[in-house]
Every structure is written in C-alpha cells, then in structure tokens.
Fibrinogen C-terminal domain-containing protein
Amino acid sequence: MGARVCLLLTCFVAFWSALVLPPASGFGIDDLMSRLNFIQDKLQDIEHGVNKQHLHAEHDRQAGENRLGQPLAQEQVAPGLVEKLESLERKVNGSEASLKQKLDSIEKSLQASMKTLEDKMDRLVDDMKTRENTYQDKLRAMENILVSKMDQLQETLRNEVPQMQNQRVIMVENRLKSNPSQAEKVHNDALQLRDQEERTGHDDQIYRSCREERSGLSGQYQIQLQPDSKPVHVYCEQNKFGGGWTVFQYRYNGQQDFYQNWTEYRDGFGDLSGEFWLGLENLHQMTSLRRHELLVEVADFSGNYGYAHYDDFVIGSEEEQYVLKQLGKYNGTAHDSMSYNLGGKFTTADRDNGGYENSSNCAVDRQGAWWYVLCTKANLNGRYQNSLNSLASMYWYFSTHERRCLAFSRMMVREVLYY
C-alpha cells in the first residue's frame, strides 16, 4: 500500500510541477494551451490511478472480510490512505480553483490584448485612409500642375510656330526681292513652305471667313461665302497684320500666266499652293454680304517693300461688271495707287470696260486685267517682268510719278468686326 501512495504522490508532484513552474522563455498562447493539455493528461492519469488504488483497496478489504468471515470497518482498512486521498482531493480542488483563476486571468489578458490589437488596427486603418487621402490630394495637385504646364506649352507653341512660319515667309520674300535670278529656287522653297502650312493649317471644318479660324496657322481652309453656297477652298494668312486675311491674289515668281479672259477672272485660276487669283465672283460674294477691308502688299526687284490698306472694300456683281464700288480710307507705306480705279469696271482682253471710246483695250495694252479707268496707276495682273519702260509689266506707283515693276504682290481681304 505504501508503494501505491508513493505512486499517487509522484503523480501529484508531476501535476503540481506542470502547473506552477514558470515557462523557460515567455508566456504565449501556444505555450499555455500546451500546458493545459499536459495538466489535463496528468489529471486523467491521477484520476485513473486513484480509481485503480480504490479498486485495489476495495479488493483487499473484501479479501480480508472473506478470510476473517466478517466485514472490516472502513476505518480499519488503510486509515492512512483515506487521509491521503482526502488530502489529495483537497489539493486537486485547490489546484482546480487556482487553475480556474489563472484561466480567468488569461482570458482577461487575452481580451485586453485583443482590445489593444483592435485599437491598433483601427488606428492603422485611419492612418492608411489619411495617407491615401494625402496621396490623392498630392496626385490631384501634380495633375493640375501637369495640365497647367501642358496648357502653357500649347500656348507657347501656338505663339511661336506662326512666328517661325512668318519668319520663313519673310525670308523667302526677301530672297526673292534681293535676288530675282533665283526665282525658280525661291518658288520651290515657297511650295515646300506652303505644303507644310497646308498640312498644319488645313482641317475639315467650314468657317464663315478666315477671321473665324483662330488656330494662328496660315494655310488652306474652307469658308462658306453665303449661307446657301458651297464651301470654297481659300488660303488664309493668319500671321501678318493680325491674321484673318483671305488671299485672293498672289504673285512672286511669274510661273502663273495672269493674262487671262473674263471667265477665268470670274471663276479664278492658278493653285493655292503657288500663284493664283481667287475669282471675282468669290470677291463679290464676300464683300457684298459683310464689310471687308483690303490689304495690298508689293515689293520691287530691288527689295523695296510697301503696303496699302483700305478699310471698306466692295466689289459689284457680274451684272455690274464687278465694278470697284468702294475702297474706304487709305493708309500704308506704298502710294495710294488704287483710288484712281475707284468706280472702274473690271476689264479683260475679251471684255473691255476700261472707259475708252473708239480706243484700244487697256487690258490688251497693259497685258493684264484690272479695274481700268483710262487705264491705271496699278497693274498688279500685268506681265511678270523687270522692265521699267514697259507699261505691260506688273507695276505699282510708289509715289505720284514713280512707277516700279514688281517682283511680288499679294492682295487680301478681311471681314471687319464691329464691337
């Protein structure tokens, strides 16, 4: 019996050691669960051992009764064992209470840890939201800066590209003025420049006039002269003199023959990428519907340049022989040579409206076509030649008595806006 008691005591000591000994390193959930499992196993072993000892004791008691022929009192059977069992029971109960207390403490500690962890998670989520909002604000600010930079760049390009193109145009014109012998090369340069401008300036939109097109790029566009008319392809000068000009006459190398008949001058001829005449009917349609101003540019073979501006330019209908009805006020650096033609009807070699009776046709004499009134002081559609003695050449009076043959001329109209 003493051996059995020793066995029980050994089990209890093992159980108590597992319960009270501190962990070697830290106190974690996994370690606690391992210890609980270990304690449970030990309790089961102890319970099994107690039951086994109890069975042995009962067996010994019954064996003793059988040998003696009468039952033995419980107090007579291993009195020390009962006391030990009771003591062990008290210890087990105490250990159970202590274990419950520790488990309650662990539960509270876990709940506190979970609460702390939840608080940390909430703070982390709030911090992440704050950072996300901050990043979004920064991204929006950067996007606004980029958009602003792009707008500035586009505005710079809109301002600089036309200036560069205008400089190239002026360069070509100056080369022509200073060295007429290179006319063919200048012509090729001009064609190349025009092609580039057409690629950048042309679009499919239809405008009321060149002034309505606001890209700042010179080139070919479509305008609708009347509300019910077909669109007309024109060349818009958008750089010089404030832009918005529709070019209707352009000469700079003599490649296009301007000694044409009435039909050609009415309908127009030439090429918008080279020398051309836009057409009297188009001029009439433009100037009869809305007020227009006229700008004439001229340059002689010595490179002298001038311009003449008239603020109210009106051309009559074909029934009126495309008469020059109005010019308005003049200003400029070239002489006012067109006022002489005010009221004159347009004359070509095959239709004489020049004012001479029983006399020669001014268009034939001057080898061109114009608003001749007893001929003219301006003959911008005459022969392209550098000859001071020929009245048939393309010329303009730079002063009252100074007629100059021209290497360059350009006539443009622009719609006048009222504010």
User: Anything to note?
Assistant: The longest helix spans residues 79-178.
